[in-house]
């Protein structure tokens, strides 16, 4: 589970690099995680990364971006989210046509663990710390 902090951090970096509205980018780069709500209610991660973590959700979100004159912003934000999650535990890339979970690695996959586990697992903590350091370096270089 890539944290909201990591999605937000890299979202801000990408928004600044491509001159996107950072606030809109942050909203749309975190939007796919709305499908975690049923898992929070059940207190186990079981259904996350299917409903809003697929190609069809990317297309629908991008079309919604057209209404805001922000197709590329929304496309890039949601695609960034999906890409990060592909490198993590995997996503239902072609859901609902396929229930197969696609991933580029299974290293940090711990489905079925309690939600608190993801806050303290050392792999996620390390990734979060590295992300924050990279973000600080980026801000220094970008705004110096």
What does it look like?
It is globular and about 45 Å long. With 144 residues, the chain is mostly helical. Helices cover 60% and strands 0% of the residues. The chain has helices at residues 4-17, 22-30, 37-42, 55-67, 71-86, 115-120, 122-143. The relative contact order is 0.17.
Outline of this structure?
This protein is an all-alpha fold and about 140 residues long. The chain has seven helices and no strands.
Walk me through the topology.
Layout: H1 4-17, H2 22-30, H3 37-42, H4 55-67, H5 71-86, H6 115-120, H7 122-143
Helix pairs in contact: 1-2, 1-5, 1-7, 2-5, 4-5
Mean pLDDT: 80
Helix content: 55-70%
Secondary-structure-based class equals mainly alpha
Looking at how many chains there are and whether they match, the oligomeric state comes to single chain
- Integer tally of domains: 1
C-alpha Rg (nearest Å): 15 Å
- Low-confidence parts, pLDDT < 50 over ≥5 residues? none
N-to-C SSE series?
Answer: HHHHHHH
Silhouette: globular
Q: Figure out the total of helices.
A: 7
How much of the residues is beta strand, in percent? under 5%
Total beta-strand segments: 0
Distance between the termini: 33 Å
Question: What can be said about the biggest beta sheet?
Answer: none
